[in-house]
Amino acid sequence: MSDMPTPTPTPAPEPTPPVISVRGLVKHFPIRSGLLRRTTGAVRAVDGVSFDVGAGETLGLVGESGSGKSTLARAVLRLTDVTDGSVLLEGEEVTTLHGGALRSVRARMQMVFQDPLASLNPRMTIGAVLREALDVNDVGAAAGRPARVRELLELVGLDPALLNRYPHQLSGGQRQRVGIARALAPEPRFVVCDEAIAALDVSIQAQIVNLLAQLRDDLGLSYLFISHDLSMVRHLADRVAVLYLGQVVELGPAEELCERPGHPYTAALLSAVPSPDPELEASRARLVLRGDVPSPADPPPGCRFHTRCPFATDRCRVEEPALRELDGSARLVACHHADAERPWQRLDAPRPERHPQ
Amino acid sequence: MTAPLLEVRDLRVRFDGDDGSVSAVNGVSFAVAPGEALALVGESGSGKSVSMLSVMGLLPPVARVEAGEVLWRGRDLLRLSERELQGVRGREVAMVYQDPQSSLNPALTVGTQLTMVLRHHLGLGRRAARARAAELLALVGIPEPQRRLDEYPHRFSGGQRQRILIALALACDPRLLIADEPTTALDVTIQAQILDLVRRLREQLEMAIVWITHDLGVVAGLVDRVAVMYGGTIVEEAPVRELFAAPSHPYTVGLLAAMPRLDEPRSARLRSIPGAPQSLAAPPVACPFAPRCEWAVARCSEELPALRPAGPLARAACHRADEVRARTEATVTR
């Protein structure tokens, strides 16, 4: 139980331009059918998403499977071509780049994957993996790279003696540290963590999240932190974006959004998180969503969430709600009923006010 | 107290692999009463799944039960023939696994898979089996059960497939349901649905449950009792409220502290447990958690602590359990 908590208030982010600025991002996958493989429709995996991530900021991204989280991440990193929209990395348009220009931009935005065993070449030693990341991105002078590999290992809390080990000789937590070191090799400004702790044991998750927080603070990194674990997202992220069927339904400061969800879907996600408190669990009223996420190939008309929303009205079935500011706060919500007395806020979800410190 | 349904006594299991052998379960004892829900909580390699696979007689060939008894209503399952075991497994004791994708046969309709079980175990006729299969699908909350019996697994969502697996497990009205991380692969919203379903079914069918998981959060609202495993041993066992209110083993304390909570103010850093669990080449002669434990003293690396009373109904395997408990009772942080 190391890493004693030092509750220092996070300094307010400086008013610098965003590191990543995403506007109206769309990624559709065509559906082809019939003899001529004609396009008969599209899976609208990401359907008009906009957000910024500031310098040193962490934006959490949550949503169920099928919400488009991973496709969004891949589109932002230009690991896939986008259908429409714009992604600016420090002011530079990424969606239209090709070849060498794209490679040099990619060095500044990196990704940490969910499964470190699958994302590390089993035949390469840890040292070779990191050396390759330096060589490919042409980081620094070749002569200095062996030393840099050692520095990277120390940076993520690994003993440089592990240099000659293979991935299978490491524990899950150690492998994820290597995954992080590889992402940091080209000295990126922006790192996407796609379910980077999901495959790890509980006690190791905390170690990795602490490491990510420390690296962010020390190196001034910006993160897009994708996770299904809302408690972890609230812990690490400054702001959170909630994705449903390829669209942002709510975006706002992490704590505020978790305490007073503006969108019923956010409320439902929070309500589904089991609390490690038997007393609370026994008394808690839950908002359990019926059914699954509808197909992104055929999203419901009106508000996309209306088919599962217990609070939906006639208006929700026909009119698509715009993402708009909630009562002058820093919060964006796409719900017709977000201004009214929100019934989903009376839910007995675990919130800090129940347990004053 | 009524006689236990299942009683495991001093179970010891070894794996002999190419990379040497591993002591996976090192003297595990626990009991489950009729209708009771017990959680086995532990991280990978803690021995929680291996313990329950031994109960079901489903260990892989490289594993060997070295000692112990698995008493099912007084009969030792470890001494039954495969044929005798089949009368218990699937019928009186049923199991649900983590991955609904790979546990259903993709080439057979859901109806065929359900009726096969019903006809084999209960000897039902074709028509009766089909009627019962539709009832089971309705029981686990699949809409239009009659029609959906004729569909193949790929037509169902992940959450629905897990419901179908639960329906399969419930087919023969088992007295005990063993669930091995059945919600781990699911979204939190679908997990909440499945947990609700299991709570409802448990009341409705009066069946006992052993819920195997790495997630302490999931079990808080689900079970009566929790056994926390580490290094192939049970390190703490307590009624669920007592365990969460005043944990007595440093590992339990560490697991609880490592999870950020929605109902607590944010802290800058999480309290993590240093190091990683190690697999054991031989049964431990000292506390297996000592290398990672902030409470460890010299004695901890010399002497294996026994599981002994640590609270009103709690037991912990820690030389300093009384001190740990005094601390957690004093700092009621929750």
From TrEMBL, chain B:
Pfam families documented for this protein: ABC_tran, oligo_HPY
Gene3D superfamilies the UniProt entry points to: P-loop containing nucleotide triphosphate hydrolases
The record's annotation in SUPFAM superfamilies points to:
P-loop containing nucleoside triphosphate hydrolases
Does the UniProt entry include the keyword DNA repair?
A: no
Q: Which UniProt keywords apply?
A: ATP-binding, Cell membrane, Membrane, Nucleotide-binding, Transport
First-listed, main subcellular location of the protein, grouped into a coarse class: membrane
Q: Where in the cell is it found?
A: Cell membrane
- The ABC transporter domain covers which part of the protein? 6-256
Q: Which residues form a coiled coil?
A: none
Name listed for the protein in its UniProt record: ABC transporter ATP-binding protein
Organism in which the protein naturally occurs = Conexibacter stalactiti
Its organism's taxonomic lineage begins at: Bacteria, Bacillati, Actinomycetota, Thermoleophilia, Solirubrobacterales
